[in-house]
Amino acid sequence: MKQPIRTTMLLKQQNKELILSAFREIGQGTRNEIAQLTGLSISTCGNIIRDLLKSGELREGELAPSLGGRPSKVYIYNANMSLALAISLVTNKDFNQIELATVNLSGVVLTKESYMQPLHSLSFDFLDALIARQVSVSPEIKVIGIGIPGMVVHGEVLYCDIEELDHLNLKEMLQSKYHVKVFIDNEMHFKAFGYHQTHTDMNLKNFALVNVPEEQTYGAGFIVNNRLIRGNANFSGEINYLPYVSSRKELIRQCAEDESLISLISKVLISIITITDPKTIVLCGFRFNDSLLQQVQEKISKTLPAQLLPEFYLQRDISDEYLTGIISVIQNLLIGQEPYEDDQF
After folding, report:
1. How many CA atoms lie within 13 A of 59 on its CB side?
2. 174, 180, 186, 189 alpha-carbon torsion, rounded to 10°
3. Contact (CB, 8 A) for 80 and 110
4. Nearest to 337 by CA among 197, 210, 230, 183
5. Which of 184, 208, 212 has its CA nearest to residue 195?
6. Most distant pair of Cα atoms in the chain: their distance
7. Contact 284/292 with Cβ under 8 angstroms?
8. What is d(CA 108, CA 114) in angstroms, rounded to the nearest whole number?
């Protein structure tokens, strides 16, 4: 009985992804080397390599050094065939910080730019102009990922510290204009994911990342059992909705004063500890300092038993981890994986 066509096509696609993954790992290799890495037969590898040469995903290199037999052809992974554009947006006090990076299929950062923009001058038109220039210079861009300091649901910005981006469906607007895949998410999801990836030495299996910028509200990101928690409506981490103040305006006012901020953050952290029980809490954002952290820890220790207290770390600037998180997500999308898939853990 012949194998169903659907099953055959699925198997071929799986073998193709396996071979591409091997090429991404080693950069270049012969049919024999790829067969050894993947466990596939040399003939199967040869057939798929021919298809990948036609599609441009591989290109031919020189002949490999001979060990006595017929020399083998080397095939090179074309990592620059498709690119992705990462954009991180951060608000702090009177300015927005914008970072852009283009990345290839192997996750190599090819270009990186940074801008400082007055708080109320960052409009969609300004952001769109930056993207248009990047796409013009690198037409190979197939995916765009943007981190937003606000709440994002299905690509729509429900609210944002950058008021000019409030209520815009950035995903739809950018996809319809540039005809590429667009992924928009809350900055805290990207920050937590990027921090998890870049600090493997800290064993961050269960941790919370809490961010308090200057003259803005706070937010959080959670990793539980090495998985980012995004929630049903991507609402996870919107801790500014915790019912400790009457309004967003009042929350910003209280965050500006040390005494009220210490009281607020202590309540927030106690809530986080009792709900997610993290081993580690990382505090970031330029509103924090060592003195505030110490006072917050002392206040929490008066409520919770010592055995339940997590380890606290202060790292005010995590812009590198933020961009790393976006880059990791869009690279996954570029190669057809789930956005927050993490193979390191």
Report:
1. 6
2. -170
3. yes
4. 183
5. 208
6. 79
7. no
8. 18
pLDDT band at 198 (very low <50, low <70, confident <90, very high): very high
Can you tell me the distance from the alpha carbon of 12 to that of 326, in angstroms, rounded to the nearest whole number?
30
Q: What is the residue type of 312?
A: F
pLDDT digits (tens, 9 = 90+) for 85-99: 999 999 888 778 899
Identify residue 255 by its one-letter amino acid code.
C
Tokens representing 229 are 């928690």
**Contacts (Cβ under 8 Å, ≥6 apart) of 66:** none
Beta 150-153 vs 109-118: how paired, if at all? unpaired
The per-residue pLDDT of the chain, averaged, comes to 92
Query: Nearest-CA neighbor of 267 among 228, 235, 304?
Result: 304
What count of residues does the chain have? 345
CB-based contact 339:329 (threshold 8 Å): yes
Can you list the domains of the chain with their CATH numbers?
5-77 (1.10.10.10), 83-190 (3.30.420.40), 195-319 (3.30.420.40)
Model confidence at 201: pLDDT above 70: yes
DSSP 300: H
Phi, psi (degrees; rounded to nearest 5) at 315: -140, 100
Note whether 104 and 110 are within 8 A (CB).
yes
The least confident of 9-13, 166-170, 331-335 is: 9-13
Does residue 119 register a pLDDT over 80? no
* CA atoms within a 13 Å half-sphere pointing along the CA-CB vector of 192: 28
How many Cα neighbours within 13 Å face the side chain of 277?
Answer: 4
Q: Give the pLDDT band (50/70/90) at residue 162.
A: confident
